[in-house]
Amino acid sequence: MSFKTFLQILVICLIFTIIGTVYLLYFKENKDLIQKQSENLVEKQSENLVEKQSENLVEKQSENLLEKQSDNLVEKQSDDLVEKQSDDTELEKLSTKNNENNFQEKKENKKTKKIKEQDSENLLNEIEYVGTDKKGNKYKIFAKSGKTNKEDRSLLDLTDVRGIVSSANRPNIYIVSDFAIYNSSNLNSNFYKNVIINYEEKQIDCDFFDLNMKTNFATAYGNVIVTDPTSIMRAGKINLNIKTKDIEITPEKKSKVQVLTN
What we know:
With 262 residues, the chain is α+β, with helices and mostly antiparallel strands. The chain has one helix at residues 3-119, and strands at 124-132, 138-148, 155-166, 173-183, 189-199, 202-212, 217-228, 231-241, 247-250, 257-259. The protein has a domain at 114-259: lipopolysaccharide transport protein A fold, CATH 2.60.450. The chain contains 1 helix and 10 strands. Strands 1-2-3-4-5-6-7-8-9-10 form a 10-stranded antiparallel β-sheet.
């Protein structure tokens, strides 16, 4: 083999070696680039997926919370509406009977009473007071009209009166009367004339009913009649414990009888 031929073969081998090296380096660089791009793409897709799932979870939790709050609000409003309708119905029944008892008398005195009310400078219409004592008893009193007592500014003289005494663990006490004196400083009230008290299955008709919210006791007196599903009894005086709803009845005779609720 001549030197010239050997040199040609060496040059050809060198060329192929250079081309192979360049190809391998370029291919490896492209492969690394593609792998890096693939990893970035997978990482970005994972981040987007996690972010989307988090947003969906937060949105779902917010919807559930709003739905629960809405249900609780609707339920509370429904309970309040039912309670108010029940109280209004009970008071309406008592007011109807009260109106029947004194319809004729009111008819005769209607014109005179209207003139007196118009002449009063302190006359108030559609009065409502709500109070709660330290023991949690709630007291509501409504009146069609009333005026401040001239001798004591804390007293209100009310006309056509309705009252509700409610406690957490006992049924409500409903009261209606033609008139009442309400003490705004201590929530005490003195109902008088055609008074009707109703609680549980008992109804008490009397001339006077004094309610003391500080001691949680009330007293009915004057032509007292107690009516329940099984009996009708006349009594001289009745003491009622507002908190326990126990009553102590003093008959027209001197003997004393005590009746306790279940």
